What we know:
Blueprint: H1 2-5, H2 12-22, H3 26-38, E1 52-54, E2 69-71, E3 77-78, H4 93-105, H5 112-119, H6 123-137, E4 149-157, E5 163-164, E6 174-175, E7 181-188, E8 194-198, H7 204-214, E9 220-224, H8 228-233, E10 238-242, H9 257-272, H10 282-294, H11 300-310
Parallel strand pairs: 4-9, 9-10
Antiparallel strand pairs: 1-2, 2-3, 4-7, 5-6, 7-8
Helix pairs in contact: 2-3, 2-11, 3-4, 4-6, 4-11, 5-6, 6-10, 9-10
Amino acid sequence: MARNQKKVGQDKSEIVADIPLACADETAAVEFLEKQRWDGGACCPRCGDVDVYQMRDRKTGERNKRFLWRCKGCKQQFTVRIGTVMEESRIPARHWVYAFWRMCTSKKGVSALEIKRHTGLSYKSALFLLHRVRWAAAPKQDGPKLKGTVEVDETRVGGKPRKHRPHRADGKYTWKHKPKAPVFGAVVRETGQVRARVIPSVTTANLKKACNELIDQSSTLISDEAPAYVGIGREYAGHESVKHSAYEYVRGDITTNTIESFWAILKRGINGVYHNVSRKHLQRYVDEFEFRYNHREMEDGERVVAAIRGANDKRLMYREPVAG
Ligand SMILES: [Zn+2]
């Protein structure tokens, strides 16, 4: 829909100016979400009709308490939440705006504990809220693949495994915490766009699957000398590798420094703010860092709007992460 593709119509600094009130007042919050989602107009989330109107109290003329709209096309009622990650939630709109704002503007992310303290929500609700906000910011799975000169790499993130000596007869250690989870990442040199994905283990099959899903085959891959990439590279227009073992981190243009700078940001955030990210939720956190990295050139207000618009059409696609 043309409406959704339009650039943010409002002045950037103006968006940020609206946010404090939208985080404190429910009407202001709903109106903020409406303005940003529909770019000043409104449109029916069910049939796309723009012939819609706000429902008002007959006596007072005030807006309906549930902030309902009615569509003249399909005759149904709707709110700004319908068809988004907010649809099934009873969490007040002002807390949603607060979570979107904090997630988009804090460099290392925001913890559920912080949201709990600042909103008065329960820890469980704050966690739910943040997972949905991360899901809104996550890239659409059917979106375009990365194209160009693409650095690929993998790393391990998550809670630091610590040695733990239980009362074992053999005196051996066991791992008290789960081992770190492997993450595959790819970044386009030309545009700086990054995609990253948690993989079950570092195997050729898993790396190949991730490459195929994220990178267009017209691209030139740049990887380290891991043998897995030799075969994968043959499926792409080109492949160059850098030999880390021979201290060859930089050979002309052949480096993986860009993806490594993303890993540094991701690890600092995961270790600093989210001490105990479980493996089953890790992809959501990775999505969050990916979103901020890919929108780093934007002003804060624009980034908030990008995340709110990302919430469109995400309701049905939301899956609770599978245990792992
Ligand atoms: Zn309609």
